[in-house]
Records
---
Amino acid sequence: MGVAKRMRGSDQPTALRRRGLLLAIGAAALPAPALAQGAARPRLPLVVLDPGHGGRDPGAIGAAGTQEKQVTLALALDIRRALEGAGRCRVALTRSGDSFVPLKRRVDMAREREAALLLSIHADAAPREHAAQARGASVYTLSETASDPLAAALARRENLADRAGGLRLPSVSPEVQRILLSLMRQETRAGSERLARLAVNALDDDVPLLRQPLRRAGFVVLKAPDVPSALVECGFLSHPTDEAALRQPRHRARIANALTEAVHGFLGRRSLAARDDDARLG
């Protein structure tokens, strides 16, 4: 598929480096007591899973009546069970039932909780002009310029609102804040690309992939400037073979296991160190 197998990530995740940037640039603005506080017990990194659609928004609907909102929730619950079973991270879902959650709120949930990453789960329907060839899983990162017409069409279909504001920056000059925001966006973009490559590599072992499976588009849910994010299209409900597969628990389990592997690869040693500390401290 043109994507190198088992790409090895750095030992220091993007979320940790991002917080290092905040400390380095904002240290002069912090009161001395805040810097002198004792080191807190490390917490397991938080992974936010975002099952697409829900409630009054069914998402795509396949020819056999399969609703995207049902598939995405089932997949997210499978991934949560696998991640929690491994004990290397905490997991939160943007929805755990059949409820409607606006796109802005999904992004806010990850940012407010200082998530290490956000993984948005979908199973869309391709536009009619792409329906014949659109089959298999693919992974998207954010770009205002779509990588191809199909990516652009899917992003237009998903996006209902845009995202702006809300960053918590240190009390420093506007010029320093602009520098910090630029550095933060660069770190987040690099982390998102790494997460997407890990996801494609893991999925490639277990499920069919769309041609050119690593793609970019302007999905709103990927627009957090400080949380690495990727959107996984687990297949196309507009294709009868994909729809039939996504209805099968065994196929969904393969996807969940692959994405669990990708998350663990992204979190790297940070999650193992936090888990070991938790075990030692009881």
---
Amino acid sequence: MNRMIVLLALIFLVGTAQAGNVYAAGGSVTGKISYEGTPPPPEHFTVSKNPEFCGAERDFFHITVKKGVVQGVAVLIENLDYKTGKFKKKGKGVSGKPMETNVATMIGENCAFLPFTGVVERLGSGKKGAPGLQITNNDTVIHNPHPFEVRGAARRSLWNKGLPEQGDKLNELLRVKKGNQVKIQCDQHDFMHAWLRVATNAYWTMAANDGSYKIDGIPAGKYNLVAWHPILGEQKTEVTVGDGGSAEASFTFSGPGRGR
């Protein structure tokens, strides 16, 4: 009897583990990010506050290209919405990855917000599902992070808080409404900029320095794949992912991009 109970318990645990990781056996999308042409020059700033620490002048690269690869590009699957552990696709619930990364982490260091770009997941509507932002000041001068929800040409201030001392840290919600981008600027130093793309599911990645990327564990189906850069904009394509298969999609950016 005891052996039978143990055997049934093991079967239950194995079955539960397999069911809980059904997304792991899904397909994947891979590709490369590149830049064609000559990137625009950096924006030049004359430093008015804390020049003794930040330097008298700064050059800020809104677009960074290394060996033909634009840096800081996020790749996301767009037409999957997370609902209670299921992704709704064409009216049917599809098991998928759970969303976890709803707090983005940045630092203020050497008078720059790092990293320049990132992704944060919105878990749902309202305050409970709002993504968060954690910023630590590693400098000995005050920084004043000020995030804005960006939707087209419109910008909406989310909050404005100071980090006066080295080691100060804040952790605040980003209560975005309809926009899917957040710009963070420093109200003390006009050359400090960073961006976040707001995702509505866990299927995203930041491209590597060599431009390669991979998103895995994707349920079989057709999806809108988006490559995003805050200045160069978005590029979209449709991909078909087979069960356990792999799709390929590469993106080439060019030009100076839009306003800052």
---
Amino acid sequence: MLRGTSLIRRLAMPVARGIAAAMKIHVLTIAALALLAATPADAIVGGGAPSADGVGRSVVTIVGSRGNFCTGALIAPKIVLTAAHCVQPGADYKIVEYGAGKQPSLQDVKSVAIHPAFKMEAMLAHRATADVALLQLNAPANGKTPSTLGAPNIPIIVGSRFTIAGIGVTVRGDGKSGGTIRVAGLIATGKPGTLQIRLVDPVGQGTRDGLGACTGDSGGPVFEDKPTGPVIVGVVSWSTGPNGSAGCGGMTGVTPLTLYRDWLVQTARQWGGGM
């Protein structure tokens, strides 16, 4: 994956403009869509199915004043879970909502809380770090249903199944292919644990183009099925192309919530999140 924030912003801007045009939002208003893709996670490529229902009901689009865009998930009426690298200090962030006729509008973010142990350099190097953050909205998200916050089943074993969701691009570098909520079923590979989980397409196994996160999917929820239904057990942090190359459709890096769930719940309750 590419490293360096200046390069990230330069690569993110064409994608941001494409998504802004696709959603018919003025680019200067969305100029908020760069930090993001810390090229960390790109968008769901490889034929991820569109899904505004099911796990997709909690998924939201986050845009920033630096020109970046990311995915988040509602975990309480006014609280969104996302990746820490998506909402770094020095920018303003908003949530994209859709009203009648699917016309987009922007909702203000009241507060941002980034896990204090997050290290950007670790995330860019695909090492484990506390890549989680919460957004407090001014008002309940319109037309969205919160998802349940949980943690992965322990032990996490190779072959364990997870579902990722995001609004990222389906074609790398083509911002117009993003903006639609998509989901994909992936499996754990390598040495999954409570610090990091690496996911691949069960067919391609990360060795050829397949399902995976891409630009705009950073911060997206990662679900695992429980007896009570799917719960969020992690967030998307980064992606690679096949065999670890730069791009998408190879491996999807996930930050599991095992070590961070208590901080998330405590922070949400301090905001009156009612979790």
